[in-house]
Amino acid sequence: MDDFYDLDGVKNIIPVASAKGGVGKSTTAINIATALNQLNHNIGILDADIYGPSIPKMLGINEKPKISEDKRFIPIEKFNMKCMSIGFLVDQKTPLIWRGPMIIKALKQMLHGVVWAGVDTLLIDLPPGTGDVQLTLSQKVNISGVVIVSTPQELALIDAIKGINMFKRVNVPVLGIVENMSYFICDSCNKRHEIFSYGGAKKESEKFKTMFLGEIPINKTLRIQSDEGKPACIDTPDGEIANIYLSIAQKIHEKIN
Ligand code: ADP
After folding, report:
1. How high is the mean pLDDT in each 10-residue block of the chain (257 residues)?
2. Residue 101: predicted pLDDT
3. Is 133 in the pocket of ligand 1 (CB under 6 A)?
4. Ligand 1 atom closest to Cα of 241?
């Protein structure tokens, strides 16, 4: 379509969506990004969660982007990825009190006002919900496919389904669903607990005829790594969690190539 942004020729654009907040969308986006990087994708990551950007903290970035000669932001390089977030520009503790049109202006600025040259696969960490940002993105960039993240809990799945239906309605393909916080293995007794229930995302992916990408357990180290700005795939690349992300990335890689 003519009015799609070119984004310096980025080939694959993959938003990561959850519809519900707090289900691990940013954690999943970052780790899939680093795993795709290990599969030789030149990765860009755009934090489109403008009210609640997590990328600066989760990637341990404290600097501001520089400006190019043509007055665009130069994304910050971290872990071999080009990263952009509104959180690089505003104080992390100050809330953004912006109405919808300002949010959309900021989103557009972060899409075409950033030097994405050199990136072949751009992951976009979406805000929760099915609102303006999701719609604008669907209309402005040529999305390869959306990755949906949900916990197995019914309440989260209802929102995930809403998200899938929204993308279907605007003709954006869904690449698949990730079940996050799928189960917990107790580190002292080794017993498996299905804290938020189990298997719901797989069932929904079958219903929607979309790929089930994988399941990630509740894992304390993963949470600590996020808090410390070290994605699991970087900090413990041979660990069980990193391997799960790698297998998810492999499925995405096969689908988009
Ligand atoms: P969202 O982007 O959906 O709001 P986040 O990725 O910010 O969610 O995750 C919310 C919190 O849950 C973060 O503190 C993160 O470290 C933690 N978290 C996410 N996934 C897991 C997991 N599988 N195991 C343990 N903690 C997790």
Report:
1. 81 93 95 98 96 93 95 97 94 80 91 96 94 91 96 91 93 96 93 92 90 97 97 96 98 95
2. 86
3. no
4. 23
What single-letter amino acid sits at 218? I
- Measured CA distances, 69 to 44, 78, 105, 113, 124 (Å): 20, 22, 21, 12, 25
Q: Please count the CA atoms within 13 angstroms of the CA of 155 that sit on its side-chain side.
A: 5
**DSSP-assigned states of every residue in 67-102:** E-TTS-EEPEEETTEEEEEGGGTS-TTS-----HHH
Ligand 1 centre to CA of 237 (Å) is 19
Query: In 3-state terms, what secondary structure has residue 179?
Result: strand
How far away, in angstroms, is 3 Cα from ligand 1 center? 35
Q: Quote the ligand 1 centre to 27 CA distance (angstroms).
A: 6
At residue 3, the pLDDT reads 78
Q: Which pLDDT does position 179 carry in this prediction?
A: 97
The burial of 232, by beta-carbon neighbours within 10 Å (0-12 exposed, 13-18 middle, 19 or more buried), is given as buried
pTM higher than the cut 0.85: yes
Calculate Rg over the CA atoms of the chain.
17
In ligand 1, the atom with minimum distance to the C-alpha of 149 is 3
| 205 touches ligand 1 (CB under 6 Å) | no
pLDDT computed for residue 2 by the predictor = 52
- For residue 128, give Cα distances in angstroms to 20, 131, 150: 5, 8, 11
Distance 216 CA to ligand 1 centre (A): 11
